[in-house]
Amino acid sequence: MPNLLNDNSWLDFEKTHLWHPYAPLEGALPPYPVKHAQGVRLTLEDGRELIDGMSSWWSVIHGYNHPVLNNAAKEQLDKMAHVMFGGLTHRPAAELAARLVELTPETLERVFLCDSGSVSVEVAIKMAIQYWYAKGQPDKQRMLTIRRGYHGDTCGAMAVCDPETGMHHLFTEVLSEHFFADAPMVVNDADWQDDDITSFRSLIEAHHEKIAAVILEPIVQGAGGMRFYAPEYLRQARALCDVHNVLLIADEIATGFGRTGTLFACEQADITPDIMCLGKAITGGYMTLAAVLTTEEISRTISSNAPNAFMHGPTFMANPLACAVANASIDLLVDSPWQEHIAAMSKAFAQHLLPCRNWDGVADVRIKGGIGVLELNQPVKMATITKRFVDKGVWIRPFGKLVYVMPPYVISNEDLNLLLTAMTEAVAEELNAGC
């Protein structure tokens, strides 16, 4: 085997042997090698420092290399890194479940700990279907969701992503078929129009006997387009689920733990889902972990009817190391002035990004809590715009027509201004160059 540690040969090996997300094995844009990460900065192998505008896809809310999270991992590592959850249990899992039950809406009392966001969506879908099977309604097998949504890359999750604008059209023939309502268009409750829910209402009225659950991303649609919609839509969806005997699954994988300005996005509509999916920021970006919460009624119905168990069990379910870090991350969050940080972020986004609405080539500017989005008229040229960002000392990862940021909550005002100045300058340069 080649010695990959003492020289740069590991980079040559990486280029020909490692796949990156949504990229070819060969011919992709070369990734930037990171040597170290501290706070909100990524240090590349060549010594350059980049202010991180992505929180490593929503997750690193406390910044990198945080001493509290480091210590939690080290202490747990000395006890045990992993033990199977089948037939065994451990304190970090119980402590995490207690924190999640306390923080989420009151009726969410049962916790299933799994590996990743996509898996949590799979678990939620299976949970809904098995619930109705236990209730003697096995025909309720389908999901109702809204277009422009994204819920993950595994088969069950892919099946409820947008079938046209999503990233999974190659797999259409092998995915389960579900019902897709028109995407919400109204952004604010003050502008609410009942027509916005018409498609959803028609589908649930016509097909509720086949629908096990509605699944949606509350308030913010993430990777499907970074779109925001009115809390009233969520209230109406909750009410229609109640009328038509359909469960509501809230996919809070991206929105959970404060990103939208409330701890969970559902709070902005003052509704409680029947099932909630959490992930991404749950460990502060340290470990892969996710959780699915549900009600006592759903869990008891599943457990007291054949096969008398919920039929899912990942090998690394409730990994002690991940649970310990998650406990520390949640405590760190709730004990911090995170609302002030999100409010300051939102204010800075408005100052830097709203003027871009007047630029030729910019279709829209959207701001929600700690999320700032520039939507362009044309897709960006990834090779050139990424280099512009890196040359300006920031890390921003656009996709399609969207250039967006979601920095760690701990970013300073100075670094935030540097990040947003670089963002707008690079976009302006790209537009002037004919993006």
Would you kindly provide a brief summary of this structure?
This protein has 435 residues and is of the alpha/beta class. It has helices at residues 9-17, 55-58, 67-79, 91-103, 117-134, 155-158, 198-207, 231-243, 296-303, 320-334, 338-353, 382-391, 413-432, and strands spanning 34-38, 41-44, 49-52, 108-114, 142-146, 179-181, 211-216, 220-221, 227-228, 247-251, 275-278, 290-295, 362-368, 371-376, 394-395, 402-405.
Question: What does this protein look like?
Answer:
By secondary structure, this protein is an alpha/beta fold. The chain has two domains: about 30-65 and about 335-430, Aspartate Aminotransferase, domain 1, CATH 3.90.1150.10; about 70-335, Aspartate Aminotransferase, domain 2 (3-Layer(aba) Sandwich). About 35% of the residues lie in helices and about 15% in strands. The strands form four sheets. It has a seven-stranded mixed sheet with strand order 4-12-11-10-7-5-6, sandwiched between helices. The protein has a four-stranded mixed sheet with strand order 1-2-3-15. The protein is globular. The model has no long low-confidence stretch (mean pLDDT about 95).
The domain count comes to 2
CATH topology of the largest domain: Aspartate Aminotransferase, domain 2
Mean pLDDT: 95
Strand content: 15-25%
Low-confidence stretches: none
Give the CATH level 1 class of the largest domain.
Alpha Beta
CATH superfamily of the largest domain: Type I PLP-dependent aspartate aminotransferase-like (Major domain)
Quickly give the structural class: alpha/beta
What is the count of DSSP helices, taking H or I runs of 4+ residues? Answer: 13
Supply Rg: 22 Å
Main-sheet strand order equals 4-12-11-10-7-5-6
What is the 3D shape?
globular
